[in-house]
Write a structure and sequence with these properties.
Number of helices: 3
Low-confidence stretches: 160-199
Strand content: 35-45%
Radius of gyration: 19 Å
Strand order of the largest sheet: 8-9-5-4-3-6-7-10
Shape: elongated
Distance between the termini: 22 Å
Number of strands: 12
Order of helices and strands: HEEHEEEHEEEEEEE
Length: about 200
Amino acid sequence: MTRVGRAAVVNWRRRHEAFPAPASGTDVHPQFDRAAVVAWLLAHDQIGVPVAIPAASLVVHGGAERRTFRFRLDDPHLVLADDADGEDVLSGWSADADADELAALTAGTFGASVGRLTVPGTPPFAVLGEVRVIERFRAGAGGLRLTLAWPARLRGTAASGPAGGGPPRGPVRRSGGGLRVRAVRLRRGGSCLLVPRAR
């Protein structure tokens, strides 16, 4: 969030009594509550509130030839399901041509999968199939607002590599206290804020 190293964080903890105490972890590797740290960083001008939400980048594999397509969704809103039985939902504004192509891909006989999805506030991930467009909405002139959905059990982490992404590292699985997912809120007075869901 701040683009600083560990030394800067150590200094903040030493110099500022109000810096949030560790929520868990060890003395050597403390872990902090993200919401508390974000509040402290904002209060001390260490990060700024974005005035606009960056676009989401969507790389889709689909069609009879399993070709790769790249799409951009402006003003993205992503909601990740709490468990594997739910659905993840992504919405955003798209140009008409892209909206038509994406809808055709996800409605095809061969289905579509996301090789890499990059949304502000969450690490890139992949979806191993069954991605579909569930809504198309137009508000006056301009582009279309698309809403896509997929079963949460198919979500995995995108492998590192070129912008197109590599094969996913595997779907999200249950472990102990449930799924390790993040609740993403992308609208708060025009800001972009990620708050992890406690487990």
